[in-house]
Each structure stands twice: as structure tokens, then as C-alpha cells.
Amino acid sequence: MSKRVLVLGGTGEARLLADRLVGEGYEAILSLAGRTAAPSLSAARMRSGGFGGAEGLAAYLRAENIAACIDATHPFAVRMSANAVLACAQANVSRAALLRPEWQAVDGDRWLYVDDVAASVRLLPAMGRRVFVAFADGLAPLAALDLDFLVRRAEPGPVDLPGARIVVMRGPFEREAERRFLKGEAIEVILAKASGGDSARAKLDAARNLGLPVVLLRRPPPPAGKTLASFADALAWLATQPGNS
Description:
By secondary structure, the protein is α/β, with parallel strands linked by helices. The protein has helices at residues 12-23, 53-63, 78-91, 117-120, 175-184, 202-210, 231-239; strands spanning 4-8, 27-32, 45-48, 68-71, 94-98, 111-114, 130-133, 148-153, 165-168, 189-193, 214-217, 226-228.
């Protein structure tokens, strides 16, 4: 029986899961999109770059004799997750998605949810002039605003927001470091994605400490099919899969 598992990555959880699978005796392959120049190393075999859509991923699954696929991509990586659903169905490979727990507000949090960046344009001017944007894609609608934008991204590169100042910083980030960063930059409001999990939560905790409002892009619905809430769930699910060899 094949014990070869493809982990679709791009998150810290994906790397940790791949390492855990190797420790449990699985032949794990960690796939990355290739956007990070020097990704953190994994005990698993690593591959970088796209597959060429659902058809390309299905071909890869067959060629590599993959027994199961775990989608541990970013919660906002909608296209990749959709391709994984289609590809695994075409290749007859078992698939499940590892989902980060969603963030829950506590006393002192000042969160407002919007569906997309365009919807945030109506809110931001009344909330503050200095805006920290915690992601670097899809920012073009913000160009309509006469505000001071500070955009953080993990790798050097441009953003589609003329006039924005870009800082290159790679997480995970600690709460106190985030508090100092926000205070030092005199940030008045944060725009972020509601991606969930622990690794990106620090900026929200820092915002609560400083009394800052946060505009959050709602998380897309999870991909169709089996979902997993933890590494233990992933191991339990894999133990029930028959393999494809």
C-alpha cells in the first residue's frame, strides 16, 4: 500500500504537518507555490512551482502514485483549493483540507468585516488616515482613497497601490513586536484578511492593546469535501485511506 502523501502548502501549518507525517512513517511531499525565495526547510521532500491547473495536478498525482492529498494552503487560496478538488476527483485520490480555526473576537477587539477590498473603501476614511495593510494582493481599489498606506509583504516586490510604502517582513510575528511596529508607525487602522490560526493573530492582539480598529476580509467558504481541524485529525483520516497503489 502506498503511503505517499502530497501536502499542498504555503503555510506554516503545512510544513509542520509534512514534518509530522514524515515522523509517522509517511512519505510526505510538501508542495509550495514558489513565491518565497528561501522557504523554511522541511523533513519532507519539497517541490516548488505550480502544476498547470487541475489537469496538471491530476497528472502529477498519477505520476507520483500519490495515495492521499491534504490541502493545507492559505484559507484565501481559493483557486488552488478548487483545483485540488477537481484534480483528486480526476485521479481518484483521497483528499481532505486542513482548516485553520477561525478567529474569535474578545473584549476590546474592534473588528469590522467586509466581503472584499472594494468594500473596505467605504469604511477606511472614517477610521483613520494611516492604514496598515497586512497583505499585498488585490489592493487596486484602495487607490481611490487619499490615505497613507503601509503594506507588509513577506517577499520583495511591487503592489498594485501607487504611493503605498512597502515593508518586507516575514512572520510569524510576536504580539509585543507587532505592538511596537504599529505604535512606531503611528498606525490608526488595520486592513487584514480573516485567515485564522495562531501564526497571524499577533497583529490583532496588538491592535486590541492599542485600541485600534481592524477591518477584516471575510474568509471564503472552505473547499468541498472532507475537512480536518488538527494534525491528529489528519493522521486519523490518513489511517482510514486505502491508498492507490
